[in-house]
Amino acid sequence: MCSRVVRWLVLLACGCAQAPLPEAEPSPAADLPAEVRALLQRRCAGCHRAGPDDQGGWGSVLDVRGMIEARVVVPGDPRASSLIGQLTAGEMPRRGPRLSLREVRLLERWIVELAPVSLVGNSL
């Protein structure tokens, strides 16, 4: 028993033991639009959708142009984006649990890296 503990400590000290990957491992940039779209559909589109029953007040969460015009997303600047401000202040979502830190960081990264590129089309 003692020898196993000593071997484990030696491996750990040498850095040979495998540590679990962190939960917030960033996704490759190519996956960002798909991940953001899935997140927005799953967590936001219930209220923020296009149509007469839109409860969000500014339109569809998948309409990138509309999000930018309403300053919900400020391309390149997550701090100026009301989306991030409302999420971090706990104002959104109004129904259901808050977004995880990983989900908020994903949205921040999308705003910094890919929001301007998304303007090629009207939606994600």
What does this protein look like?
α2 packs across α5. The protein is mainly alpha-helical and 124 residues long. It has one domain. It has five helices and no strands. Mean pLDDT is 73; it is low at 8-24. Helix content is 41%, strand content 0%.
What's the SSE blueprint?
Layout: H1 2-14, H2 32-43, H3 64-69, H4 82-88, H5 101-113
Helix pairs in contact: 2-5
What features would you highlight for this structure?
124 residues; mainly alpha; 41% helix; 0% strand
Whole-number tally of structural domains: 1
Which stretches of 5+ consecutive residues score pLDDT under 50? 8-24
Strand content of the residues, in percent? Answer: under 5%
Overall form: globular
DSSP summary: helix tally: 5
Assembly context of the chains? single chain
| Major sheet attributes | none
Sequence of secondary-structure elements:
HHHHH
SS-derived structural category: mainly alpha
Distance between the termini: 56 Å
Mean pLDDT: 73
Number of strands: 0
Helix content: 40-55%
Radius of gyration: 20 Å
